[in-house]
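Quick one, tokens below:
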């Protein structure tokens, strides 16, 4: 027979609900004040011509039509995609290798903690550290290259090397954190699965591709979504090292938005750029989760 809750039972649950809402309320206020309201205002400003000294003037879709004719925008997107590709490939591969080493070889908690240390340092400090180490004249890396009899390399001053160098700096900072995420996924794989594969005579490479990678898919999907979104939003490393140069070789989309808003006071156009970036990121995240099947697990 169906059970009916008594009025007294409802009275007991009501205070719990109020307490839960009380704890959630500060986070909700912060979400609305610092995320939802600015997002809505940014979308509105994208349809206006607005500088901080005047009132917004409605211009409809003029900003968006101008963007698609803007060569600097397409250049910024191309530079950003180049950075994203380098960052994703190297960070994921290196992090996966480190995670496998932690899982099978390095059992020390100290080593695992040491891998996370670069991620705990502020990104600006990391960028400045590598900027000085890779300096063309006095950087220790170029001193070693010169000592070896090789020509010095303008890591941040060359159109050819600037974006790969920035990608390297951010891979170095984030690979430990990414490795720990993948390592947590490896820990969740039941050990008996590997034992069965060993009894069947599966080689280590066959075990990796047929068991480890399929069972890691949900974690790898999460890692890829987080890494791709973070890569598209790269700004601080570029700002403190190259400033978008040389000759726009490192002017990523976030730098272009910043320059339009705070350099040229064209907040309406910058808002339209931000909306387009938001749509791109939402679409990329959706497609990644859909095709990688990040919400499914082969363990089920």
């Amino acid at each position: 027979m169906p059970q009916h809750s008594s009025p007294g039972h409802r009275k007991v649950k009501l205070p719990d609900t109020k307490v839960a809402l009380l704890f959630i309320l500060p986070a909700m206020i912060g979400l609305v004040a610092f995320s939802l309201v600015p997002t809505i205002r940014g979308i509105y400003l994208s349809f206006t011509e607005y500088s901080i000294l005047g009132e917004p003037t409605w211009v409809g879709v003029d900003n968006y039509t101008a963007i698609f004719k803007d060569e600097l925008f397409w250049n910024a997107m191309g530079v950003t995609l180049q950075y994203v590709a380098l960052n994703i490939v190297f960070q994921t591969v290196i992090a996966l290798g480190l995670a496998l080493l932690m899982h099978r070889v390095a059992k020390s908690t100290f080593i695992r903690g040491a891998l996370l240390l670069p991620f705990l340092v502020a990104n600006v400090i990391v960028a400045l550290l590598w900027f000085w180490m890779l300096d063309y004249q006095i950087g220790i890396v170029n001193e070693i290259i010169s000592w070896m009899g090789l020509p010095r390399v303008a890591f941040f001053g060359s159109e050819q090397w600037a974006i790969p160098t920035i990608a390297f700096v951010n891979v170095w900072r984030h690979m430990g954190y990414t490795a720990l995420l993948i390592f947590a996924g490896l820990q969740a794989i039941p050990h008996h699965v590997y034992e069965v594969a060993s009894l069947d005579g599966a080689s280590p490479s066959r075990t990796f591709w047929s068991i480890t990678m399929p069972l890691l898919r949900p974690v790898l999907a999460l890692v890829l979504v987080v890494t791709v979104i973070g890569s598209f939003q790269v700004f601080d490393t570029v700002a403190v090292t190259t400033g978008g140069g040389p000759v726009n070789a490192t002017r990523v989309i976030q730098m272009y938005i910043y320059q339009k808003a705070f350099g040229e006071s064209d907040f309406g156009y910058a808002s339209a750029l931000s909306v387009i970036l938001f749509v791109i990121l939402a679409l990329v995240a959706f497609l990644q989760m859909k095709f990688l099947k990040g919400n499914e697990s082969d363990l089920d």
